[in-house]
């Protein structure tokens, strides 16, 4: 056995990464100012509890460069509100990715519509505009896209298809706070952009969400669904202002207080994460079988999560063995974590889909790519030395590839 092999953790050698508390993954971390903001909410009396909500909405409009923002209690509620606002009806079809969180596609059910799954682009894992166009039928009314892991979708092509076929576009931007496409913020390209602020997200409020739009009618309709007492006075929907439509989607004041501070830090935080992810990418992409998801120059991506493609044919080593070797080194690298939506049981039971079962469809690119993805931490809050240790773990594992 060579000396280098003897040091391989899988074979009993020392670990390359000493990060027992998984600080590489630690998120969110709230600082003293954020804790004080939460405490200040608890000290307020009744009427003042919600005063920050509209201030935050103005701040969101200023940051994203859009006219209307509506906070919600989570991202799922924001997407439901968007589906309602764009006028989806029972029987309508909505083209959606399968490689996403369930709230993107399953919320179609809440308006009686049916999801139609489209395939992805192999270089981005985002919905493929050409496949969107292939799946349009006379029933198609909207497209919902997810900017997966922080990589913007091809919005020029998607908006062009939507215009030609008179379809509404909802962006699920829950992974992409601060990302841009041609210098314009993600979440403001479509008719409505929806964001989650659940604790793992780049703008973490523990739970929370919001939607953005430049269209006053869409804003008023979204208010009417889940925000009683907030339906604009000059909207004809104001008549139902005292009740709304039976949902209650108001954001929690603690979430608002956290989100206001986190929004101010978002750009610096995204720059910090991007610098670290790029440092790792530049080194590990030299290893055989590792292919990063790189954003083309007209996009500014962010890193909600850091994924790379692992191509087993270039190393001859199965992905699970690589994961095992890296984990033995102390590097928490995993399989990616989203099951594909079109394979989920909930889409296969007629009892849940009065307008007809969604087509399971054929998504060859998505199915192939999904099995080849590795997830790394995005190193948002750890020490720089931990980033270096992860690099050492990869290089060590690859030096021992034949024995993995
Ligand atoms: C892509 C995507 N869409 C929607 C959501 C739903 O957001 P929430 O958990 O705030 O309801 C999430 C959250 O995990 C998500 O990742």
Mean pLDDT: 96
Give the number of domains. Answer: 2
Q: Distance N terminus to C terminus? A: 14 Å
- Small molecules held by this entry: pyridoxal-5'-phosphate
Run of helices and strands: HHHEHEHEHEHEEEEEHHEEEHEHEH
Strand order of the largest sheet: 1-9-8-5-4-2-3
Using the CA coordinates, give the radius of gyration.
22 Å
User: What is the overall number of helices?
Assistant: 12
CATH topology of the largest domain: Aspartate Aminotransferase, domain 2
Structural class based on helices, strands and sheet pairing:
alpha/beta
CATH class of the largest domain: Alpha Beta
What proportion of the residues is helical, as a percent range?
Answer: 25-40%
CATH superfamily of the largest domain: Type I PLP-dependent aspartate aminotransferase-like (Major domain)
Number of strands: 14
Strand composition percent: 5-15%
* Principal-axis shape: globular
What would you say about this model in short?
By secondary structure, the protein is an alpha/beta fold.
Overview of the molecule:
The protein is α/β, with parallel strands linked by helices and 404 residues long. The protein has two domains: 165 residues, Aspartate Aminotransferase, domain 1 (Alpha-Beta Complex); 231 residues, 3-Layer(aba) Sandwich (Aspartate Aminotransferase, domain 2). Helix content is 34%, strand content 14%. It contains twelve helices and 14 strands. A seven-stranded mixed beta sheet has the order 1-9-8-5-4-2-3, sandwiched between helices. The model has no long low-confidence stretch (mean pLDDT 96). The chain binds pyridoxal-5'-phosphate. The site of pyridoxal-5'-phosphate (PLP) has 14 residues, from helix 4 and helix 5.
